[in-house]
Write a sequence for this structure.
DNA sequence: CTATAAGTTGGAGCCGACTCCAAGTCAAGG
DNA sequence: CCTTGACTTGGAGTCGGCTCCAACTTATAG
């Protein structure tokens, strides 16, 4: 008889930052397996569930739709993806998506940095005199995020 | 005077991957300024609009809500963020968000790589390190998707 | 002159992801 | 006993972001 720590729904809500309602909702749509209940019907959670929820939370931060998270939970639960070639393919493809997303995000960071820099040397500083030259041709925005025109963006 | 090329809504839809309906919707909610119309009422777009839309598309890929895109379009249109200190603050804060998002995404990539590796040396041969994955920055935040490997849950 | 194509409008409808609510159960405390 | 609090359920409502539609205008081709 081991004393694995058990948590209430409120506790894991607090610990994962996902609301109780949302956790119940995830169970309702079977994104999460039905949690074990106590005699009084209350859900009981363990460390295992905690890390599943944390994975979910992480995926959520990346903007992934709930339906697309299922494969991750399958591997999370089963831990042996090689048994499901299909799954492996999904993971690979998701990996590609995510790498693409990182690239998009990096472009946005670059865009912001560019804009902030612009403001910086306009705001003060040395002899960079561009007031006339590129004060506002009203579209220096591009120049960085063009490359992505190709592949379909879906999702 | 140069003849700046003009585009129809369909053309920029094709070029940006954003549907005509969506572009009109963005105009309706004033995310985009009201486009110039021809005599027949049709919208006319220019390079400038094209790059604005591309920026939008890029932000969209990062999962940013439309409302949060407004500041970006302001700087995109005006091109001189230093005039609006508030805006600069928003940009900075967004930059932080995005950097955080990149970290989350990187964690997911790491998770996938880990799972794929697992499958690899179980199903085929032994590989401690692969060349495919680059070095792992591995965010510290929460790296605890491992304990789940119990393979015990009833799913 | 009519048909087709490409656009316009306002508004309805849809889907995902919550979020809130009412009504009920159980456990402990005053 | 009654109340308080933490939880349960099913279902309704909300919100963001489209997506679709009907009705209409205008331009071009046959």
């Amino acid at each position: 008889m081991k004393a694995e720590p058990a948590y209430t729904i409120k506790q894991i809500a607090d610990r994962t930052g996902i609301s109780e309602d949302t956790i119940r909702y995830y169970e309702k749509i079977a994104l999460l397996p039905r949690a074990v209940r106590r005699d009084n019907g209350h859900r009981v959670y363990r460390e295992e569930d905690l890390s599943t929820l944390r994975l979910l939370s992480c995926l959520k931060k990346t903007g992934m739709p709930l339906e697309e998270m299922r494969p991750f939970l399958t591997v999370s639960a089963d831990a042996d993806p090689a048994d499901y070639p299909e799954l492996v393919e999904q993971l690979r493809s998701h990996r590609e998506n995510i790498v693409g997303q990182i690239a998009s995000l990096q472009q946005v960071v670059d865009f912001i940095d560019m804009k902030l820099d612009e403001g910086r040397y306009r705001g003060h500083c040395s002899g960079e005199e561009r007031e006339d030259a590129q004060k506002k041709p009203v579209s220096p925005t591009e120049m960085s995020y063009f490359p992505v025109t190709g592949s379909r963006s879906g999702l």
Summary: The radius of gyration of chain A is 24 Å.
